[in-house]
Specification:
Largest sheet: 8 strands, mixed
Low-confidence stretches: none
Number of domains: 1
Radius of gyration: 18 Å
Order of helices and strands: HHEEEHEHHEHEHHHEHEH
CATH superfamily: Alpha/Beta hydrolase fold, catalytic domain
Strand order of the largest sheet: 1-2-4-3-5-6-7-8
Helix content: 25-40%
Distance between the termini: 27 Å
Mean pLDDT: 96
Shape: globular
């Protein structure tokens, strides 16, 4: 793909971010980073789509109560509608149902689907494997309660962005229930200590929002020790072929100017080589998180529509 450079809207957003965040702390705490991400998701995110209802549910897990936020669509093209388990990004540290409310509502309204956003335990307070344990518990609960929620148990889907993409892929590899579709957005595919991708070094210097520094810091906060990055429950790209063959039809979306671009492509290539139906899309001219910023980026809006089509199919 020949590059045409950054989309003008992306350039304007990066300039706006520089101005908006000029007074942010130089070395923010974890809580300050969480607050900042929530602010950005609402300041630059898509409009707050109308849904029929939104409700928090608490489920029991071996680690204790786990919160799920459930969104029901006002109308849907298939009866009963499909159910989407949404696993948010944020480097295993940031994000949550509050920051991802606009995205979850957009998935629900545009995808004609019930959306379940899992509030998994975050690092560094809860390190690996807390997050994936919670996501697996949420998937099992949704599968068991699909009909009670009003959804179609045969159309159970999983999506995740960034670090949530890693969790979504691992949950799919290890699923004990049938998964209808998987959607990965600019996913982290490995935290292995020896991971080397040209996009991380070429695009991770801070010009394009996500930095290689941010990726490495997230790994340090999530893992007790770097060697855990070789565990396929952390790095889905390292899973064996049998685990990857469990994937349903999968959509992988990356961004041209994202440090995580090359590993997303590598994952799609592995799936394709094993005969898994895969659609791979690298969106030109844009950056990591562009769907989160769909309120100011047309390519984010287009991304939301593509994801909605995947949920409806």
């Amino acid at each position: 793909m020949a590059s045409t450079g950054l989309d003008p809207e992306v350039t304007a957003l990066l300039t706006r971010m520089g101005s908006d965040l000029a007074t942010a702390p130089m070395d923010p705490t974890v809580e300050q980073r969480r607050e900042l991400m929530t602010w950005m998701c609402h300041a630059y995110g898509p409009p707050m789509a109308r849904v029929k209802a939104a409700q928090d549910r608490w489920i029991s897990t071996p680690a204790g109560p786990l919160r799920l936020r459930v969104y029901w669509p006002r109308r849907f093209s298939l009866k009963p509608p499909g159910i989407v388990l949404n696993i948010h990004g944020g480097g295993w540290v940031l994000g949550g149902p509050e920051s991802y409310e606009r995205i979850s509502r957009a998935y629900c309204a545009r995808g004609d689907a019930i959306v379940v956003d899992v509030d998994y335990r975050r690092a560094p307070e809860n390190r690996f494997p807390a997050a994936i344990d919670d996501c697996e518990a949420a998937l099992a609960w949704v599968a068991e309660n699909a009909r009670t929620l009003g959804g179609d148990p045969k159309r159970l889907m999983i999506t995740g962005d960034s670090a949530g993409g890693a969790l979504a892929a691992v949950a799919c590899q290890r699923a004990q229930v049938p998964v209808h579709r998987l959607v990965l957005l600019y996913p982290v595919m490995t935290a292995a200590p020896d991971a080397r991708f040209a996009s991380r070094t070429d695009l991770g210097d801070g010009r394009y929002f996500l930095r290689e520094f941010d990726i490495k810091r997230a790994e340090e906060e999530y893992l007790e020790q770097p060697s855990q990055g070789d565990d396929p429950r952390v790095s889905p790209l390292l899973a064996d072929d049998d685990a990857l063959r469990k994937h349903p039809p999968t959509l992988v979306v990356t961004a041209e100017f994202d440090p995580l671009r090359d590993e997303g492509r590598a994952y799609a290539d592995r799936l394709k080589g094993l005969g898994v139906p895969v659609e791979y899309v690298c969106v030109p001219g844009t950056i990591h998180g562009f769907v989160l910023f769909a309120g100011v980026l047309k390519r984010g809006q287009s991304g939301l529509n593509r994801i909605a089509r995947a949920f409806k199919s």
